[in-house]
Write a structure and sequence with these properties.
Chains: A alpha/beta (138), B alpha/beta (116), C alpha/beta (93)
Number of helices of chain B: 4
CATH topology of chain B: Hypothetical Protein Ychn, Chain: A
CATH topology of chain C: Hypothetical Protein Ychn, Chain: A
CATH class of chain C: Alpha Beta
Order of helices and strands of chain B: EHEHEHEHE
Helix content of chain C: 25-40%
Low-confidence stretches of chain B: none
Strand order of the largest sheet of chain B: 4-3-2-1-5
CATH class of chain B: Alpha Beta
Structural class of chain C: alpha/beta
Mean pLDDT of chain C: 94
Shape of chain C: globular
Largest interface: A-C, 24 and 28 residues
CATH superfamily of chain C: DsrEFH-like
Strand content of chain B: 15-25%
Distance between the termini of chain C: 25 Å
Helix content of chain B: 25-40%
Oligomer: heterotrimer
Shape of chain B: globular
């Protein structure tokens, strides 16, 4: 089932790490896509998926640190990772700009994730051959 | 590039449907064709006379009635799900089209997505 | 290389309402890819008669159900990428 042409993907993750398998499945897909020579336009975190961009996750040392795994992958490939601003603010995920805007006691956005609006999702869809969603299972 | 956003979870108990609605509104804001399809327990979104003040939430009925103004093409509801949850035309908000959610319906859209 | 109308990616266990919805919407010419808890469909009775069925191998192995795959085809993540491109559209349930 080898595909030789290079295509572009946008991946949307809506399931949170440690309460769903979504970030792991998405990372397996993303690694396979880049290994096959495809391009990933962006990763968009939506709903509970924004928890993947938290710099404050501290799982036990014998468990995979999914936020760090994802951050490393994004940085290595120069892929933008964007957390939906509305989802993020509701769930307590903020960068320094939003911390100041809402006078919050801290910020917790993991580098290189960014915070932006749903327009990034719309644009990612338009520039991609396929947009895939990774929801929480159940 | 037409998109069908599917909502299969009822309002208030989870945020899933609200976030699905935001996706549809956002597509429409960027002039992308978007429709909503309510299936399963999601059809409760379309019930007339919702009053969510007692649970300190905003009624989703108002959000939905704004859908045509924001450029959402159609609000579709699965006929069999409406029957199952006791909804007839008189108990639905205005502007809902009853359809059979099947493969032929999905074939009319380039994209189909859930919010979660 | 085969191609499909719709690739349905199902990651919910068989008793999840969305699993029933997904299976009810499978059409001739579609393909079903079972991932995460979706692979439990392999040991929960009969696979859908319509369309080709794939199951993500690491999820099948993780759950120890490799002996019950029936007519399903085990695939790796690389195949999942290829399948998503071979289909006209992809629906993640």
């Amino acid at each position: 089932m080898a595909d030789t042409s290079s295509e572009t993907f946008t991946l949307v993750i809506t399931g949170a790490p440690y309460s769903s398998q979504a970030p792991q499945t998405a990372l397996g897909f993303a690694r396979a896509a880049t290994d096959a020579g495809h391009r990933i336009a962006r990763i968009f975190l939506y709903g509970d998926g924004v928890h993947l961009a938290s710099a404050l996750s501290a799982p036990p040392s014998d468990e995979t640190h999914w936020p760090k795994e994802w951050a490393g992958f994004l940085e290595h490939h120069g892929i933008p990772g964007i957390a939906c601003i509305a989802s993020a603010l509701r769930r307590g995920l903020v960068n320094e700009t939003e911390q100041k805007r809402y006078a919050l006691p801290g910020s917790n956005l993991l580098h290189p994730f960014e915070i932006a609006g749903l327009g990034e999702w719309v644009e990612g869809r338009m520039m991609s051959t396929r947009t895939l969603y990774f929801h929480a299972g159940g | 590039m037409s998109t069908l956003i599917m909502i299969d979870q009822p309002p208030y108990g989870t945020w899933n449907g609200r976030e699905a609605l935001d996706m549809a509104f956002s597509l429409a804001a960027f002039d992308q064709s978007a429709s909503l399809l309510f299936t399963g327990a999601g059809v409760i979104w379309l019930k007339r006379a919702q009053d969510a003040a007692g649970i300190a939430q905003k009624s989703v009925e108002k959000n939905l009635s704004a859908a045509p103004i924001f450029g959402i093409e159609a609000i579709l509801a699965d006929r069999s799900a409406c029957q199952r949850y006791g909804l007839d035309e008189a108990s639905l908000i205005t502007g809902v089209t009853l359809v059979d959610a099947n493969g032929a319906l999905l074939d009319q859209y380039n994209h189909t997505a859930f919010a979660g | 290389m085969s191609s499909f109308n719709t690739l349905h990616i199902l990651n919910k266990s068989p008793q999840h309402p969305r699993a029933a919805q997904c299976l009810a919407l499978l059409s001739e010419g579609d393909a079903l890819l079972l991932t995460e808890n979706g692979v439990l469909l392999l040991c929960a009775g009969s696979l859908p008669a319509m369309g080709k069925v794939f199951a993500l191998s690491p999820d099948v192995s993780a759950r120890g159900i490799g002996n019950t795959i029936g007519d399903a085809t085990l695939v790796e993540f690389g195949d999942m990428v290829a399948l998503s491109l071979q289909a006209q559209r992809v629906i993640s349930w």
